[in-house]
Amino acid sequence: MLGINFKASVPKSLSEQDANEDAASFDLERGIVAISDGASESFDSRAWARLLVARFIQQPAVNAEWVSAARLSYEVDWDFETMSWSQQAAFDRGSFATLLGAEWHEHSRALEVFAVGDSLAVHLDASGAWESHPYRRAEQFDERPRLLSTKAEANAFVRSSTFYTESCAVWELTEGSLVFLMTDALGQWLLTEPESFNARCQLLLSANTEPAFTEFVLEQRRLGAMRIDDTTLMVLSIDNGAPSE
User: Fold this and answer.
1) pTM for this predicted structure
2) How far is 166 from 160, CA to CA, in rounded Å?
3) Edge to edge, what strands does the sheet with 99-105 contain?
4) What is the CB neighbour count within 10 angstroms for residue 201?
5) Is 33 exposed, middle or buried (0-12, 13-18, 19+ CB in 10 A)?
6) DSSP 8-state class, residue 113
């Protein structure tokens, strides 16, 4: 079954832990995990990101109807009439977030990865060979990503006939395979030097406690190698033992 080796998140500012707009959730018994990165310019991207990962865990088949139901679920939590005019204006502009999810299929020993936005999934096998989704190059992170939105008109791309093929990848995992799910600041850092990719993966694997991961992220920020942004990592493997708590 799917197992989580490590998961941690470092906010933009350590003094504002509650302002972290990344979200993560998992159900290991069903082999489903998800992370989301809320866009900072949004009305309440933190709540939207949390809703998206929770909904993916419940129902990992994302389509136009799925997104519409998520939007409606988000809207019922807000009373528009009691908002200030500035809050109403921000609410009307919408909230935006990425969604990166994965579902393990035991019968085929395959991981189905779904991605909208610039959160990154990486598969590293025991030989050191790797593949990533949805990006392969660091410069792709400089482009404006597509994001799931609380505004219907911003989700038109979900109805495209190519949405599923563009959003999904299927990876066959073998003994020793590792899968990294990460938000964009870490993803761009990982892909910045392709010749050092495996060495950078080992750096991530060595930062295998929350304090160590936090110090790693802070050091990369100090060096100017990683953008200052909420930074989340989840490392997955095939686990034949008991599910993680």
Assistant:
1) 0.93
2) 10
3) 22-27, 32-37, 99-105, 110-116, 168-172
4) 18
5) buried
6) E
Model confidence pLDDT, tens digit, residues 180-208: 999 999 999 999 999 999 999 999 999 99
For the chain, the average pLDDT equals 93
Confirm whether 244 is domain-assigned: no
User: What is the rounded CA–CA span in Å between residue 45 and residue 37?
Assistant: 8
* DSSP assigned state of 128: S
pLDDT value, residue 240: 56
Let me know how long the chain is: 245
Angle between helices 197-206 and 184-191 (to 10 degrees): 140
Tell me how far apart the alpha carbons of residues 221 and 113 are, in angstroms, rounded to a whole number: 28
Q: Which DSSP letter does residue 39 get?
A: -
Stretch 215-240: mean pLDDT? 95
What is the C-alpha to C-alpha distance for residues 24 and 76, in angstroms, rounded to an integer? 22
The domain tally of the chain equals 1
Q: What share of the chain is helix, strand, coil (3-state, %, to 5)?
A: 40, 25, 35
Question: Between the ranges 40-44, 79-83, 174-178, where is the mean pLDDT highest?
Answer: 174-178
* CA gap 12, 115 in Å, rounded: 23
> Structural domain of residue 90, as residue ranges?
2-238
Residue 230 in domain: yes
Q: 91 versus 237: which is more confidently predicted?
A: 237
Q: What's phi and psi for 172, nearest 5 deg?
A: -85, 120
Structural domain includes residue 172: yes
Domain harbouring 98, CATH code = 3.60.40.10
245 domain-assigned? no
| Other C-beta atoms lying within 10 Å of the C-beta of residue 215 | 13
Of the candidates 186, 43, 38, 178, the one whose C-alpha atom is nearest the C-alpha of residue 117 is 38
